[in-house]
Amino acid sequence: MFEVQHEAVSGRQTRALDLSILIVTWNSERWIDRCLRSIPAACAGLSYEVVVHDNASGDGTLRHLGQATVIRSLSNDGFAAGTNRAFRASKGRYVFLLNPDCDLAPGALTTLFEFLESHPQVAAAAPLLIDEGGGAQREFQLRRFPTLRTLLAEVLLLDKLFPKNGTTARYRYRDIHLDRPQRIEQPAGAALLLRREVVDEVGPLDEQFAPAWFEDVDYCRRLAAKGREVWVVPAARAVHFGGSSLEHMPFARFVDIWYRNMWRYARKWLRPAQAETLRWSIITGMLLRCLAGLIGFKPRGVRRWDAFRAYAGVLRKAFDRWEISSPSSS
After folding, report:
1. What is the mean pLDDT of each run of 10 residues along the chain (330 residues)?
2. Cβ–Cβ contacts within 10 Å for residue 25, how many?
3. In terms of Cα–Cα distance, which of 126, 141, 138, 114 is closest to 45?
4. What is the C-alpha to C-alpha distance for residues 25 and 247, in angstroms, rounded to an integer?
C-alpha cells in the first residue's frame, strides 16, 4: 500500500517538462537534504520535477522532502518497486534515477540532458561519480556485464587475492580514459538519465531484485538486448557518499540479499549450467569465508560470530536454491 502526498514542479511550465528526478528513500534523513539542495543548480535552464518514493522510513526523512511529489509506502518495497511507482507518477521527457546519497555538481543534469539531446542513438547517460575528495569512483560505478568468470572471481575472492588480474581489470573498465564521454555497458544506477520513450519500450525495473542490488545491472542488460546504448559523461559529476542503505542494514541481511540477487541475475542471463556452477561456487565461497571468520579474517566492523552466522546463512540458502518461486517480472 502507498499514497501520493503532495506535488510541486520547478522551472518553465509552458511546455512539457524536460526532466523528472526520481529518488527512492529509506531512512535517508542523513543524506536527502543535501541531495535535494543540489538539484536546482544541477538543472540550470531545465524545467523539472522531483518525485520521491519513500519506503516506510522510520527516521525523519519525510521532514526534508520539501515541495517534491512524495509517494509514501507502508513497507520497504525496495528500489525497483519504488522507482517504478515514481516513474508512473512522473511527467518529464527524461527521467533521472538518483540515490539520496548523491550531491549533484552545478550543471550536471543540464550537461547530461544536452548530451542526450545531441546524441539520439544513446538511450541513457550517467554522470561520473566521485568521492568527497574528488576522485573518480570508477571501480564502483563502471563495469561490463557480469560473466560467469567475473562472478566466480568475486565469489571466490580471486579479485581480492589477485587484484591486477586481467579478468577483473577488464570487468571494471580499467582500460579506458575518462577524459571524454564513453560507451559503458552498466554504470551504477545511483545516478542515471533515461529517455522516457526508452523506459516505455524496455519496461519497468525488474522487482524480483528486491530490495536492492542487481536491478540496475539487469536493466542495462535489457537495454543492450534492445540495441540501446548507455554512456558515461565525465563532464557531468556527482559526489556519491555511498552506504545510505547499508548503514541501516545488518551485515547478515546484506550478504543474504547480495548473493541471492546475484544468483537470480545468473539464472536470468546465463546458461542454466553456468548458473548452477555459480551456485556451487557461492557454496564454496561461503565455506571458505566461514573458516576464515573463525580465525579472525572478517569484514571490518563486523564481529567474528556475526560474520560466521551471515556466511552460514547464505551457505544454507544456496543449498536450497534460495527457494525462489517468483518468476522474473521483465
Report:
1. 50 71 95 96 98 95 93 94 97 97 97 98 97 92 96 90 88 93 96 97 96 96 97 98 74 94 97 97 94 81 89 94 61
2. 26
3. 114
4. 13
Specify if 233 maps to a domain.
Answer: yes
Q: How many CB atoms lie within 10 A of CB 271?
A: 11
CA distance 86 to 71: 7
Task: State how far the Cα of 302 lies from the Cα of 143, in Å rounded to an integer.
Answer: 27
186 and 86 inside one domain:
yes
330 burial (CB, 10 Å; 0-12 / 13-18 / 19+) is middle
User: Based on the structure, what is the number of domains in the chain?
Assistant: 2
DSSP state of 312: H
Provide the strand spans (E) within the chain: 2-4, 9-10, 19-25, 48-55, 69-73, 94-98, 102-104, 122-130, 142-143, 182-183, 186-187, 191-195, 229-240
pTM above 0.85, yes or no: yes
The rounded Cα 71 to chain-centroid distance in angstroms is 20
Beta bridge partners of 238: 104, 129
Check whether residue 200 and residue 309 sit in a common domain. no
Which of 210, 240, 270 is a domain's end point?
A: 240
Question: By the 8 A CB rule, do 47 and 13 touch?
Answer: yes
Q: Which amino acid is at 41?
A: A
Residues 6+ apart with CB under 8 A from 216: 97, 186, 188, 189, 192, 205
> Structural domain of residue 211, as residue ranges?
2-136+178-240
Q: 281-311 in b/e burial notation, b at 16+ Cβ within 10 A?
A: bbbebbeebbebbeeeebeeebeeebbbebb
Give 41's Cβ-side CA count (13 Å radius).
11
Examine the domain organization and report whether 286 and 221 are in the same domain: no
